[in-house]
Structures are given as structure tokens and as C-alpha cells.
Amino acid sequence: MTLSREGFSPQSYNYEVENLRDQEYPCLKGETYLDHGGSTIPAKSLLREVAADLSTHLYGNPHSASAPSALAGHRVDEIREQALRFFDADPEHFDLVFVANATAAMKLVMDAFKDHCEGTQKLSRHHRQRFWYAYHRDAHNSLIGIREAAEGGHRCFGSDQQVEDWIRGKNSKSTNKDRTVRLFGYCGQSNMTGRRLPRSWPSEIRHSPHTSDVHTLFDAAALATTAPLDLSNPGQAPDFTCLSFYKIFGSPDLGALIIRKASPGAQILASRRYFGGGTDGTLAFHSIIALSSAFRTHARLFKSMRHVSAHTTALTAHLYKRLSSLRHINGRPLVAVYNDSTATFGDAHTQGATIAFNVMRPDGTFVAPSTVERAANARNIYLRSGSLCNPGGAAKYLGWTSAELFKLYEEGLRCSRPSEVVSGRPTGVVRCSLGAVSIVRDVETFLRFLEEVFGDCTAEEPAGAGEVPETEARTGTMTSSVRASAEMSVGSAKAEQRSRRMGLRKLILSCLSSGRRGRDGEEVVNLKER
């Protein structure tokens, strides 16, 4: 079947990606992967190059003095500089610490600020300092969690305007700068909606008389996945930048904390109370060495992050346009897309390669996000649903108040549990996130799935659903009655098409309702043995 490209012919779309998919990403054959925001897919040639490197070179623990250890240490230093260059960060002005992931980088900063302030408690009263923390509403839980260590208080900014008013000193309570260490954390891109936040805030904070003492912590994990992270101007860069390499390259499973050397916060980081022997244990040197191959492979396949940005921006704009045009027969929209008024699909400065939405029935009621995810999984389409560890985004876009969210939490709502509909409102979203290797076929396959399974769906979808048995998810096994329903001729092309769509929908929903109730009302299924 030839996939439709109607209305899609931007020059920025990289058609070469379609040519390299089969060779470099054989794991994607017959699969539609739309969760690059969680982790993208490593290229086959990357994995082969890493295997060849590690099997032909002898690398030892960098803490030892042997030749293999010296080689490993040299490679680590070399790749540290290579990583800085990838982000246009001059090693003269920036340092880079390898960590497990972006969350580990944030925790490292939190621990340093907490330890610094606790260390001043032995000083005279006039020299004691307290840790104060502020963050933006769009922050991931990893950023929000830092507030628990801020004994000097914390604040959540509910909008961009509140941040800018604070920078200008409007409606802000005065603080004793000499006795308070202040940190502001925010994300470059919402992991929920893909909205990109202003990159100018670190510089504005640094140069404002009201916030010049504030350190900035920038969560670049979602942003760096499909956009260049330009740190070429040290004066405008954040004090601390956190990211995860596996979101960019697929492998290795590694993160980084980039530190602006001129920042006073660099000294705070160096004064951590924990001492693990110079470095906190042995570096993940094999993963760091693999990172060098990741840089080379990425450049060979995709040229640069600017090319990736152009490609994914064009593709995401196409997905948004098509999603917004989906309608039930009665004219009502099939999906509700959540986006901010400051973000425009097709504009890489304000919107990333992520779309958050919910599916609606013809009567306007919502289908549970977890139901959509499981139905997609049964068709080998992989996305994510839930609140996405972003309570601020859930509160804003889904219309939940703080009190309502707290009540839901007391009743058992968690990020790790299936997202359902409560009192007519969803507790989460469906998220599609594209990456460098995404192509038009992925978008069209997903759109066709939505139309076939949820177009003109009834209100009788199962209230809960268990995991789809692996064999059924892979092969799409139909019962004879469903197949007969799907293939039955009804005398007209339009009726036949509708019957086929209903048959496919029954297939998915029968898979979803095939479980039985277990303890605590959870849906369980009997997985077939391999």
C-alpha cells in the first residue's frame, strides 16, 4: 500500500533517513516506534563499531597505573572534550561530568547545594546560609524533587510571565542574598507537550539586579534529543546543564552535567561533603568510550543536530496537522491536542518533536490514555501514556487543581500506574515523540491506527485492560467471528470500509478485554508460553 504524503513535501525533511532505515535500524521492521522522548534507537553500525573497539583494544580501570588503564584514562579525557564540542561548549569555559542520566546530574547539583548550606551551620549566625529553590511548572519530577532539600523555602512559577516578573523584581519578596543560596531550575523543553521554553533566562537572571545571585539549572534532556544545544556563549549559558546521551544516540546509557566554570556554583559543586576517592567510584569508562562511536555514527547518518531539528520539526508539524484534522462522522474531533499558546508546530524555537493528546469518542467523552497505549501496542505501535512525571503539565492541560490532584494521589494515582478517566477527565495523556530516525510512514501508520480503531468508536470500551498477550500483539491473531465481520460484503464500498474498520476495532478491543480481574481490581492476563 502506498502511504499518503498529501500536504507533506517540505525541503527540510530528510528523505535519506528512509533509505537507511532498513540497513541501520532492522529492529524497526514492522514496528512503529513513537517514544524517542524516552530513548531513541541505536544504529546497527554504532553497536558494531563499539563492539569492534572493545574487542580489539585493552582498556583497564582508569584508577590504575597500567598501560591499559592509561589508555582508558586518555580516551575518557579525549571524549569528555569531544562531548563538550558536540554542544559547542569551549573546554576553556566549561567542564563536563559523566553521570548515569540527567536525573543523576540534577541530584548531584542538589546534594552539593544542600551540603554547602549545611556546612555553614557551624559558622556564626551571620555567616550561615540556607538553600532556596525555584522551578517552572513545566518541570519534570526530577527537577521538582530538588525542593525537598531546600530548607530555605521553594517556589513554583506557574507561567513564563511569573518567571519574567520575578527576574524584573515584580511582586517578589525580598531575600537576604548574603544568607540565602538560590537556585532556579527549568527545562528547555516540556517532556509532556514538547513546548520549548526561553533559552534567554539564564543570561537575564545573571544580569538582573534582583536575581544576579541566583544559580541556574537547565534540564536539557528533552530538548537535546532533537535540537542543537548551543553553549557557544558562556555569558548566556546556564550554570548547570543536565542531559542524557541515550535520548540523542540510543546508546550508551549515559548522562552528563555541564558546568560553567565562571559560575560561583562551580565552587559549591566542588565543596560536596561526600568523598569517594577523587571520583565517586570508577567511571563507566566502557560507556564513555562507546560515546565516541556514537558521535561519529550520528554525524555520518544525520550530519548535524541542526539537520535533525529541521527533519523532526517538519515531521511533527505534519503529524499535528493531520491529528487536528481527524474527525468522527458527526464532525466532532477524534483527538484533543494539548499545546501552549506560545508554541507553534513547525517553529523549532518554540516547539519540539513531541505531541500530547487524548482520544475522544463521537459524544466528546475521553478514551482512557492507557487504553490507547495498549491498543497501539497490539498493532506494534509504541508510544507512551500517563502523566509522564509532569504534574504541572497534567494540572494545566487536563484542568486538575492542586487539591484534586492530591485527592487522586491519596486514592492511588501514580505515574507508574495506567492513566484512566476520572469524573469525565483523563488523568494523563497520550504522547508521541519523534526522533532523527522517524519517517512519514511512522506518522501515517499511527494516524491510520487511530482512524481504524477509534474513529466513530462506541462508548463501551473496556473500563480497564491488561497487557496484550505477546503472541497476539505480534501477530494480530483474529477470531473467526471478527475476521468474518471485517471481511463481510455489505453491498457498497462505503459500508464495506466501515465494516472493515469495525472489525479491526473489535480485534483490538477484544485483545484489551481478554484479561481477568486480579487483586486490587487490576487487570491480568495469562501470557502464552513461548
Automatic annotation (TrEMBL):
Protein name according to UniProt: Aminotransferase class V/Cysteine desulfurase
Domain of life: Eukaryota
Keyword Transferase belongs to the record: yes
Chain intervals with Polar residues compositional bias: 474-483
GO biological process, one term: molybdopterin cofactor metabolic process
Organism (species): Macrophomina phaseolina (strain MS6)
Upper classification of the organism: Eukaryota, Fungi, Dikarya, Ascomycota, Pezizomycotina
Keywords annotated in UniProt: Aminotransferase, Transferase
Domain Aminotransferase class V: from-to ranges: 33-444
Region Disordered, annotated ranges: 461-500
Entry coiled-coil feature ranges: none
Stored Pfam families: Aminotran_5 (PF00266)
Record GO terms (molecular function): molybdenum cofactor sulfurtransferase activity; transaminase activity
InterPro entries for this protein: Aminotrans_V_dom, PyrdxlP-dep_Trfase, PyrdxlP-dep_Trfase_major, PyrdxlP-dep_Trfase_small
Keyword Transferase among UniProt keywords: yes
